[in-house]
From TrEMBL:
Residues 1-30 form the signal peptide. InterPro entries: Cyt_c-like_dom, Cyt_c-like_dom_sf, Cyt_c_III_dom, Multihaem_cyt_sf. This is Cytochrome c2. Pfam families: Cytochrom_C, Cytochrom_CIII. The chain crosses the membrane at residues 170-189, 222-243. The keyword Repeat does not apply. PROSITE patterns: CYTC. GO terms for molecular function: electron transfer activity; heme binding; metal ion binding. CDD domains: Cytochrom_C3 (cd08168). Residues 50-142 form the Cytochrome c domain. The lineage of its organism: Bacteria, Pseudomonadati, Bacteroidota, Flavobacteriia, Flavobacteriales. PANTHER family: CYTOCHROME C7-LIKE DOMAIN-CONTAINING PROTEIN, LIPOPROTEIN CYTOCHROME C.
Length: 444
């Protein structure tokens, strides 16, 4: 009885070879059949008489805040705008659209209403030549895939083959049909070979079984030991990192019962932090401002300006928060008097140090002259206040090591500063050199 190799493996190799050949051939055919695409037909015609390069600079400086070339922004997309309107009309519209609308110009009124009655900024400083340059830039054709060189037989993949009339779907369908035929043929060949082997009493050599990789790994004691040590060390590292984050609430930004925007108050209106948080100058705690402090301004400010609104928060939303303040303090806006009916505001605390940590705001704000943003971040940019710093022990120690003690007009530290500066051989001491790393300074 004869023994031969496993013909199944030969069949498998034959199948892979044929499949690769067919895929390569049909893909090449599809690429050859597809024609090159030109963008001349789809692109808007360029307007002559303007410099597109200068127009791009003017567009970015004046128009890009509200307009995009190929997508709607605050205003409509501007590519090809010269093909929609006459140039004399565009001159008037760009220089002062409001006057054109007030004059009753039907085209101006239509554009105004189509864009939700959004008022376009006037640009009287732009000359007709500047506008020509901008229009030339907006009339440039949209960049497409790079065109092929003249005379090339290749084409952009994925386009229709117009010369032969064969689409990509037909090519893919033919490819799938060929693959099915190949599978059926190889299955039939396998059956024929099996019958021939049985008829000629040929024994097919079975595939030699191999040891599974997990068994081989388990039998190697050295690999098991190394892997165990690695897993223990990695586990300890991640567990330590997790435990070190307990109690660290950096970037914690809770939703408050009354939405208070530091961006509007400390940023746009430039209200000093210590006007509201006056306790920070003289006491340990920064303090929660009394609502009476809010009413110093909001007795006369019952609503915000239109320009205050953002895409996330509308004018109506901000006005609603002012009404919540009136409800809390019992303020009757109509009679301009307090009703006496108040409601407590349950503010959510953001910064919360452990009980065993002593931190004095007045020591840092008044004596040391530290800016509020050092610990609380750029609050003038925050719509919702958050915990900026981690407030960990290492963060505080690092700050004490880097921050120099301000001696200007501070006679309290004059004597000890002169003595310690000579001891350490420096001109200015850091908070750490002044005893800022002593345990008793921060811990009871």
């Amino acid at each position: 009885m004869k023994k031969v190799g496993n013909h199944n493996s030969i069949t498998r190799k034959l199948f892979l070879g044929l499949a690769s050949s067919v895929i390569f051939s049909l893909t090449s055919f599809a690429q050859e059949a597809a024609p090159a695409v030109t963008d001349a037909a789809a692109a808007p015609a360029a307007v002559t008489g303007g410099d597109a390069v200068k127009g791009k600079e003017l567009f970015n400086a004046n128009c890009a805040a509200c307009h995009k070339l190929d997508a709607k922004g605050t205003g409509p997309a501007l590519r090809g705008v010269a093909g929609k309107y006459d140039m004399p009309w565009l001159y008037k519209w760009i220089k002062n659209s409001s006057d054109l609308i007030k004059s009753g110009d039907p085209q101006a009124v239509k554009v105004y209403e189509e864009n939700n009655k959004a008022v376009m900024s006037a640009f009287p400083q732009l000359s007709n030549a500047d506008i020509d340059n901008i229009i030339a830039y907006t009339s440039e054709p949209k960049a497409e895939a790079p065109a092929l060189a003249a005379g090339s037989t290749e084409a952009v993949p994925g386009t229709a083959a117009s010369d032969s009339g064969i689409s990509n779907n037909i090519i893919l369908g033919a490819l799938a049909l060929v693959m099915i035929i190949l599978v059926v043929m190889l299955f039939l060949v396998n059956q024929v070979l099996t019958k021939v082997a049985k008829a000629n009493a040929i024994v097919i050599t079975p595939k030699t079984p191999t040891t599974p990789i997990w068994k081989a790994f388990a039998r190697n004691q050295f690999l098991v030991l190394v892997t165990s040590v690695f897993l223990l060390l990695a586990g300890a590292y991640f567990i330590y990192g997790y435990l070190m984050q307990i109690g660290v609430d950096q970037n914690y930004a809770p939703i408050q019962p009354i939405h208070y925007s530091h961006r509007i108050h400390a940023g746009d209106n430039e209200i000093n932090c210590k006007y509201c948080h006056s306790a920070a100058r003289v006491s340990k705690n920064g303090g929660i401002p009394s609502l009476n402090v809010c009413m110093n301004c909001h007795k006369n400010i019952a609503e915000v300006a239109e320009s205050t609104a953002t895409p996330e928060y509308s004018k109506a939303f901000y006005d609603e928060q002012i009404q919540k303040l009136y409800t809390a303090v019992g303020w009757d806006q109509t009679s301009q008097t307090y009703t006496g009916k108040t409601q407590p505001v349950k503010w959510v605390r953001i910064h919360n140090l452990p009980d065993f940590v002593y931190f004095n705001h007045s020591q840092h704000v008044t004596v040391a002259g530290i800016e509020c943003q050092t610990c609380h971040g750029p609050v003038q940019e925050y719509e919702i206040q958050k915990q900026f710093a981690p407030l960990t022990m290492s963060w505080c120690i690092d700050c004490h090591r880097k921050t120099e003690v301000k001696m200007e007009g501070n006679e309290y530290y004059t004597k000890i500063h002169d003595e310690l500066s000579k001891k350490y051989g420096v001109d200015k001491l850091t908070a750490a050199q002044m005893g800022g790393l002593e345990c008793g300074k921060c811990h009871y």
